[in-house]
Every structure is written in C-alpha cells, then in structure tokens.
Amino acid sequence: MLNKGPLRLLVCADMKCILLLALLWVGLPDGAVAQQLEQIPNAQPGKCYAKCRMPEEYQSFTEQVVVKPSQSITVVTPAVLESKTVQMTVKESSKRLIPTAPQFESKRSWVQVKSADRRFLVEDPVLETVTEPLLVRPEIRRLPGQQVTLETQVDRIQIRPELRRYTLVPAEYETVQEVVVIQPAHKRLVEVPAVYETLAEQYEEEPEYTRTEVRQPRYESVTERIEVKPASTQWIRRKIDAGCLSAHPDDCMVWCLVDVPAEYENITTLANRGCNGSGVPDAGCVQTITVPAKMASRMVQVVKIPASVREVEVPAETKTFTRQVLKTPAYYKEEVLPADYIQVTRQVLPAGYVPADANGSAQVEVLPAEYKTITKQVLKVPGSLREELIPAEYVPVIQQVLKAPASTSEELVPGKEEQVTIKVIKTPEKRTTEVRPAEYASITKHTLVKQGGFTEWQEVLCPEKITSATIGQLQRALAKAGYDPGPVDQSLGAKTREALLKFQKDKGLPMGNVDVGTLRALGLPY
Description:
This protein is mainly β. Among the domains are: 116-163 and 317-402, no CATH class; 466-526, Muramoyl-pentapeptide Carboxypeptidase, domain 1, CATH 1.10.101. It contains four helices and 38 strands. The strands form 17 sheets. Strands 1, 2, 3, 4, 37 and 38 form a six-stranded antiparallel sheet that branches. Strands 5-36 form a two-stranded antiparallel sheet. It has a two-stranded antiparallel ribbon with strand order 6-35. It is flat and about 160 Å long.
C-alpha cells in the first residue's frame, strides 16, 4: 500500500495487477501522473481501474544440430569388355521400283450439239358484238302549261376496248466446233535402276566407355554461434532512490521495463569443403574419364543413286463435234391498239328540276324517256402469250476416264554381309552410393510464444466490493454459462480463477481481472 497525500495505489500480488482508486503514481512527477490519468478513458471518481502485468511465456524444445553432415560415398565397379563376332554389310541393300500402267474405265457421256431455247405461243383476243339501249332524253313529269327546258350534253361512248397484239421474233444460232477429250492426258512410268559406289567405311572396333575416379573430400572445423533464447524485455520492480522516507516499503518501488539480451551457445561442426578447392561439398570428388572408342576401316558398296522411275507424258485423245450455240434467244414485241369511241348527244334535266306531283284535280303530264340503240364490241376472251421451252439436243460419246494413275511397286534387292570381330561392353560401369549418416548434437532452445507487459486500463471492482457474496454470484453465473467454477463456496479459488480466465478468453474479453465488462457479459448487474 502506497500513501502520498490524496494518492492511493494498490498492488495485488496474486493477480499481478495495479489498481488505481483516484490517481496513479509509479515513480513519476505529479505532472506525469496527471498525464497517465488522462489516458484512462471515461475515468470517474470512486471507481477502480487496473492494468495487469502479464509475464513473458516461453516454450522450450530440443533441436538436433548437425555437427558433421551426411556424406554420399560412390563405389565404382569398372566396365568389362568382351570379343564378339557380328555380321557387317559389304554391299548395301536397295530397292527396285516396278512400274504399273495407268488404268482407265469407259464412261458414256452426252455432248450438247444444240443449245436450249424458248418459243412463244400467241392467242389473239376474242371480241363479241353486243347492242345496248342508251338514254338520250329522260322522263319528264309536268303540270299542264308548265315548261321544262332540257340541257344538251355530248358523251364519249366506248364501242371497242383497248387491245394488245404480239409480234414474235425467232432465235438466232451460230455453229461452233467443240473438242471433247476421249482419253485424258496421263503419265507412263519407266524404271531407272539404282547406282552403287565403293567407299571406305569406318566402324567401331572397341566402343567408347567411361571410367570413374573417386577421392575423399576435405573437412574443416567451423564454430557456429546458435541463439537458444531470443532477446526480450521484462518489467522489474526497483526502488525509487535510497532516500525514500515512506513508512510503507511499497511506496519506494517502481516498475521498470528493461532489455533482456539473447542467450547463445557455441557449436563446433565439420564442414565438407570438397576436393577441388571451391569449398562446395563433395565438389570434384567424383571424376568421370571418357575412354575413346577404337575405329577400324573396311570397303563397302553403298547406293550412290537410289532406284527411281522416269515419267513419260502421254497426250490426250480428243474428238471434234459441231454444235449450234444460241446467239440471240427468241423474243416478242408487244403492240397496243387503242380503244374506239363515238360521240352521242343527250338531253339531261336541268339543275333544280323537281318532277310534278298530282295535286287536287290537276293532272300530271308525263313525257316518256327516249332511248337510242348502240352497237359495240366487248372483250369476250382476252389475248394471251405463253412461253414454251425447247430442250437442248445431245449426242452420246464414250470417254475413257482415269481410274488409277500409273504407280510403282517396290521390290527389295538384298545386300551382302561378312563376319567381323569387335569388342563390346559386357558389363557397363556400375556406381553405387553408400550414405554415411550425419552426426548430431542436442541443443535446448527457448521460443517466446507470448509477449509480457501491461494490459490497457479497464474498470474493475474495488477491493471493498469484492465480497464473498460477489464471488458467489460470479461462481453461479459461470456455472450457468457452462464454465465449471467448482463448488459455490464464495471463495476465489484456483477452480474459479481457471473458469473465469477460460470465459474471458472464449469471449475475447481482457483477461486476469474481475472487471466490469466480464461481469456484465455474465449478466451480473454492475
């Protein structure tokens, strides 16, 4: 317990946290204390706030360190040669090409000797003479003494309709000569035999093979410094100064963040530097030497010019036909005969004429209408023009159609061989690899899995409010939420602390305090 005027600071050893009642003091001047207090969000007098100190968590594990790497050793079994008699060609085989004549088949076809045309058939129109009455004066109804003056009108009456007449012009032909292929041009093949020449040929009397040389690599001792525990920081309580006059010893302590250096161990290892001075492991320790082949000479006959065929052109066979080709097709001319008319004078009633009607004793005088008979021609059957196709004229002709062109078939001309003794690889060089296992040393390392420090400020229950009744409520709320706090004994024991920490971790809440946020998450009225 630290007392300094109105300041009061509580340090909880069991939860490793700092509780602030009104103001906080951690070995800082009063201005710095005020600045720390201003960083507490929404701080209110009479309430308690806390920051928990969380220690660093390390995980220890044992690691195997290679002090001498594994090595692959190559064991070589040399190649074994043996003599062998083989057949070698002294005259090269060749091919003979045997020509086959082309094949034809007869096909009947038609040659046009006269082109197709058309002709026109004309039917003249048929007229019929008819008579019909024509009104030349209308009926007049008038009263006695009434005068009706008629008007004279001249009408144009058609006595024959318009007619169309067609004049035909026949087609014109010209005579041409057409050449028809009776047998197409084709090719005939003539055999040309192969031509040989004698040459000196190199052959392999003893084959090329490889020989392997193996040397042991050079090893060098190397000291390696291995980090076994990383550098970190740690909060440590220290005295403010030697002249602190407080009656309570905790008033003279402050929390200081100090650097903790990394820890190392020295390990001596053997490094494989190879055999060629490059420093690369096993470099140049295995060398492959090529033993060249031994060659010998012999005379052979080889094909200089391979067999072939020569093509001979055979001209086509033709036949000439005379044919009539349409030069100008048939056509027609159309002539229009206009209609015939006559003029007829008629009398018509004047405008405003009203026929008289019987009225009382007066009698109506009726002058009958007068008619004139007109003779005219009407179209009974209209004229027509019909087109008729005149088909082309053909004559048959027998043509030879190429069924299969000239071809060749191959016939093998065998070569000649003789026996020659050579050396061959009976058993090739064989390499096997033996692996020498690596040598290890055990080293224990420590890895920081969780950084220590202080949490953010959060509201917690003040010490006078953490009563046995409060702890009983907390235990019952944890049990209801599915977290086992042990028996409800109103004591903040290990089982209750474990259940509280698990609840805070699962809900993402600040861990390590009986804070107001945790109590509200459990449904407690705080």
